[in-house]
Amino acid sequence: MKNICLFLIMLVAMRSAHSKITAEPDSALLFAYATTKNNNKNGLHYAWTIDQKKWHLVGPEHSFVRSDYGTWGAQKRMIAPVLIKGVDNRWHAIWQLNEQDGVFASASSEDLIFWYRQSYPQVLVGDNVSKPEISCDKISNQYIISWFSPKSNKPFSAVSKDLINYGEVKELDSSSYGKQRVKVDLNGIEEEGTLHKVAWEVIDKIVNAQKLEAYKSLLHNERTEDDMVRFADLKSVKANFSIEFNDQKRISDYLMGIFFEDINYAADGGLYAELVQNRGFEYHPHDKKGSDANWNSFKSWKLEGKGIAHKIDTLNPVHINSKNYIALSVTAEGGALLNEGFDGIVVRNGQKYDFSVFVKNVKGNINGFVVELLDENGKTIAQQIVKSFNKKWQKKSLVLIANGNAKKGILRITPQGRGEVALDMVSLFPQETFKERKNGLRKDLAETIAAMHPRFVRFPGGCVAHGDGIHNMYNWKNTIGPLEERKPQRNLWGYHQSVGLGYYEYFQFCKDLGAEPLPVIAAGVPCQNSSDGGAGQQCGIPLHEMDNYIQDILDLIEYANGDRNTYWGKKRAAAGHPEPFNLRYLGIGNEDLITDIFEERFTLIFNAIKAKYPEIIVIGTAGPFNEGTDYVEGWNIADKLNIPMMDEHYYQTPGWFIYNQDFYDRYDRNKAKVYLGEYAAHLPGRPNNLETALAEAIHLTALERNGDIVEMTSYAPLLAKEGFTQWNPDLIYFNNDEVKPTVGYEVQKLFGENAGTHYVDNTIRIHSTDFKVTSRIATSVVWHENKSELILKMVNMLPVTAEIEVDTAHLTSFDANIEKTELNDVPSSKTVKPAKSVVDLQCLNQLKLQPYSLTIFKLTKK
Ligand code: AHR
């Protein structure tokens, strides 16, 4: 960022030098337009001229604002924008969105560079708002919006004082429409837009804003693969490092946490230890929006043998929330029902498995099942019999003990007798789960997570929390209580959520990890990329339903924290946890589009929580990026409502992390605290390798330094099942049998294991004047007051050794034996593991940081 400031100073200096030689004009003509390229998705462009002959394209075709309407990919179009300077002295842009909806887009700006939130007023039903125009009547202080409606083949108009509320739509005389846009020949290509006479200063700022963007993009896209050229003359780097041990500040105890979202099969088929896939026969083609013919209520099941048939029934189910069950009709013995699990069931010799099923006899004399686990050769490796069914649903349970191994095992259920029998909630769990919990979590995966020492767990999303439509929002009440009473639903990542891993299990997991629970609830609006509902635009829970919605959120707090005699506390106690879970944090919203629809709903929720549970720390949301409209508008709401903490998200290139180490040093200490809820370094191809991990390590050193304002951080996403991944990179990959932590995981774990209570002031003086060199070395020092440990973290992201001379004057009171942990390899390495050794304090005098390395020294007070 320092470099970017330097660049700005350079631009200003160049400009004043320039204005000394040539006289700049007082004003120029600005042309604002959008092209039809990329299906109209390239947003707003500017060009300028002084003589109306030579046009200068800014960028060329730099996008100053893009449309946010609808889903990514298909929509987000800006058609025929029109700009005016409004009665409020701000710039207003309106544009057409598509060829069918009766809505248009509106946004405003003070400087034509930064654009505030967009709104999409609906003025027509059943017809399209085509090529809207805007004018302002300075006498009545109102705007007149006019447009053409293709179906009625007429222009219409509506007036508005604030561009939020609109008056009655009236037909317009055709002579009063269609005059605002002009055609300009932009050096051989004709474009349509609006012309504005503006002060030269306006043009100058626009041009410089674009140049700054271009410069930043160059820096942020630097990759290690070009380091040999970039640093061809660099042989080594020398630096002096000193620690001012007595200069400390308290930092957050919750800096290192995790974000668990059911993406990439993280829950069902992943952390949730259930081995039967589609146990409740609730899979539905809509889970995948009809894209997979085999994805239905029989998914992962099959029949074997003759004389057996099935149907999926809904009459008199076990529970209305899980309405499907399977009815088997058996005409000859020997036929069986098989479940293949999630791409096979892993069975381990000697291990015990809890099998359970809801069953009822419909007709005939079926009065038992043989329940077996088969290995991949069809050999039975566990067997038991379930007996005596009656005409009402009954839950039957038994324990299977495996006498063989299978990587791709099968569950087989063979009815005994002939007739018709119904089954539901067919379940198989290893008894060995994390902390031996029933309905528990996969031990190896949970232990890998626990090894990170997460101080908090954010759940259940992410996008899963707010869903991709109002009816897809995660409803915590559907996820508690007996499994057969929970309400499964579509997972917007393109599969199914059994919600067997629900709110109770999340809270229990947090407790087992010794981590703070941090649930995230939708702010009454679904995902930015919603495809369900609202003509493709962001919709919100209707205002008349918000009271109920807010009550659900207040009920969640009672469920977590209420006494066991409260209505919801009693349900928690009945599930097995009479003591409160001590919920302190609650996220409202997830990187939402910050619109009027959002703000209205967020404010209602925020005020209600504050009134009833002032002790809860509500975490607001600042959009999906580290800058831009949602970020600024989100933080503006934080200021307005005095929100205690804000959730920020950004997935950035390694270069961004290298050159933005002072991102939080610039934050106002009197404003909301920060929860960096989602971040990761992304390279083309999306690997998780040493290059991305070191960029994240650089950022983590800066986060520790800013641990007074940054309260919490979590990498995203956490888990990914091989072959079932929607998002890369992730922190921990796994299959049914193995857990494969990444290099990024090692960095998170090292920072988790080596956290401190205080940040210790330290100075590194690198003997180089090249900011590309100095930006690639980062340090942080923390002190853990309870453990009396001083921890130095040093990142060298250069292709050469960094020779550091540490001033050990303040370190004489520490034990001479220091624990050293080093992570280093080639930047493309995906397999490097940290190496631990014990070194002598003296080695700090002539410290060598390996190329592409993270090195940690742990000193213990004598
Ligand atoms: O971490 C994956 C996704 O990234 C989250 O669901 C969402 O919040 C973000 O866009």
Automatic annotation (TrEMBL):
Superkingdom of origin organism: Bacteria
Residues in the signal sequence: 1-19
PANTHER family: ALPHA-L-ARABINOFURANOSIDASE 1, SECRETED ARABINOSIDASE
Protein name: non-reducing end alpha-L-arabinofuranosidase
SUPFAM superfamilies: (Trans)glycosidases, Arabinanase/levansucrase/invertase
Pfam families: Alpha-L-AF_C (PF06964), ASD1_dom (PF22848), BT_3657-like_N (PF22847)
The entry's keywords: Hydrolase, Signal
UniProt key word Hydrolase: yes
The protein's Enzyme Commission number: 3.2.1.55
Record domain Alpha-L-arabinofuranosidase C-terminal: where: 677-853
Catalyzed reactions per annotation: Hydrolysis of terminal non-reducing alpha-L-arabinofuranoside residues in alpha-L-arabinosides
Family: Belongs to the glycosyl hydrolase 51 family.
